[in-house]
Give the backbone structure.
Amino acid sequence: MRITPQAREKIVAFMENADENKLRVSQLSLGGCCSAKIQLGVSLAEEAEAGEEAYDVDGIVVLIDPVLRKRLGEVTIDCGDTGIVVRAANDGA
């Protein structure tokens, strides 16, 4: 798992103004969508949810379900046109 320098800078800035100090990577549920591609998202979190594992990635604690992480393979958190994005080696595409 890695975070690009640009994404790290934005995440740290978000965390400075928030109560949450962890980054959660999760699979998004898109109702009615039949795409085989996994849709991923990030959010700030205060605590890990049951079953999540925490990883220190360049000083940022990243929370992710271990089954999802195994399914995704290598994960990169980066900046995209719409903000922070998650790219995975095995995203179902």
Notes: The chain has one domain: 2-29+37-88. The two ends are 19 Å apart (CA to CA). Helices lie at 5-16, 66-72. The CA atoms of residues 8 and 50 lie 25 Å apart.
